[in-house]
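Minutes, project check-in
Item: structure for the 270-residue chain
Input as provided by the requester:
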Amino acid sequence: MTPTEDLRRLLRAAKHRLVMNSSPVIARWKGECPVCRRETTFEARHEWFRDHLICTACERGSIPRERALMQALEQIAPSWRSLQLHESSPGEQAASRVLRRDCKNYLATQYFPEVEPGSFKFGVRCENLEAQTLPDESFDVVITQDVMEHVFHPDRVYQEIYRTLRRGGFYIHTVPIYKGLVATERRASLAPDGSVIHHLDPEYHQNPIDPSGSLVTFHYGYDLPDLIAEWTPFDVEVRRFHQRSVGIVAEFSEVVICRKPFRADVSYST
């Protein structure tokens, strides 16, 4: 995108936030937030709860997918605050801020196309999820939030995360899974010269480090756990929620949990 298009996108986003902040509340109830761990009021000013059902007690107002992720993390790795934890592509949202603040062994990475992987920009380590420079078995937990729908080679990403996890470690991530899709749909791919081939109309999501947004490369379907199991020896679980008491009420509320087996003789072929 051109600088002019970037500016227009930013202005549209700012206008949208202004309109939303002045809109009437259409839903409100009390509960307990898994992110800030406080009694709170959940409220929404837009019917698309996934992005707009906020916790009023959270700094930066957590949304349902963040609450789903943090609830899963607390349940399966309750000692996460003292574990080695890698989060790829965090933004400034509530859950990432809590992870960064409370986990003493927290590593955040971002992918900067112009930066050598393993080096730093603005104090943040650059890593390409598809080809990481991180050592084998470095982490107990890896987290991504709505990242996997933007990669071109998800098989490589899952394999690299598997490599960098310790035995028994978890990859916990949110990713939109489309209830109308039995089979995963590829929306874009890379040509040999590195150019993007669009198989369907381009779709973009917000990107914390790029105002032009992130291209959506996949719409994942019901077969996602089977695909992950084809690509890696991960044990895979998908959790889906509708829990008013903790503010997890929205479309695309799934959390995908991949666990690296303890056994060393589990392998896969590519």
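Outcome recorded: The longest helix spans residues 3-21.
No further action items on this chain.
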